[in-house]
Amino acid sequence: MTFSIRFRTLGVALFVCAITACATSPLGRRQLMLVGEGELEQMGVSAFEQMKSEGQVSADARANQYVTCVATAITRALTPEQGGGQPWEVRVFADDSANAFALPGRKIGVHTGLLDVAKGQHQLATVIGHEVAHVLANHSGERVSNQMAAQGVAAIVSAAGDPSSPLNTVVQGALGLGVMKYSRTHESEADLLGLDLMARAGFDPRQSVSLWENMAAASEGNRPPEFLSTHPSPATRIRDLQQRIPKALPLAQQAWASGRKPNC
After folding, report:
1. Total number of domains constituting the chain
2. Catalytic one among 54, 89, 131, 213?
3. Is 131 a catalytic residue?
4. In the chain, N or C terminus with fewer CB closer than 10 Å?
5. pTM
6. Is residue 90 included in any domain, yes or no?
């Protein structure tokens, strides 16, 4: 099979995949979605149970109460379309890394190391809102779908001819760049959506800038250049959040006016 025929075969396969499995993110971005919501939730629940069995769940009652208070304030503010009114399981893990995560199936985990960087409830809400936004925007499903599509493309290329062909090299290079770009896209999207979530819960979105200033200071000298990273730099995130705050602040003011003022 010639190079041009292999390329057309690949293009047809990708086109069919794109038109039959498209979704739209909350910010209007097209997404590839090859897995169902129920399947994703099962995967999330299973992964969380494994983390609890293998990881060290913190026994610090105050830390668990504090994190649960912030997380619950955010999840209670979700709209019906976002699954509001359903309980989320929240756990604190004894881990020195400044990290947190949320999984399909309504699971939230926060590392104790994050509590040293996120100063106060508003900064912690920035991170938890960000992680919940990943779930609401189906970023996990999109990542899984992209991996499935990448594996399918690799199989097409391999079946079409020599794995070392120029087409194979081009496709694999494009896939590598695509995965990197999508990851940055997910992070940036979750930053903006998470800002709205924390604001609607009654947290101050202006504190998101302070959070990322703290993150930048904590990671000084440990970050690769942004073009080599799968995450936006703290400076980029701060700039984007500052541009979003004028939209998020009225949401917080509405929450405050209605009496929604978390005190965690």
Report:
1. 1
2. 131
3. yes
4. N
5. 0.74
6. yes
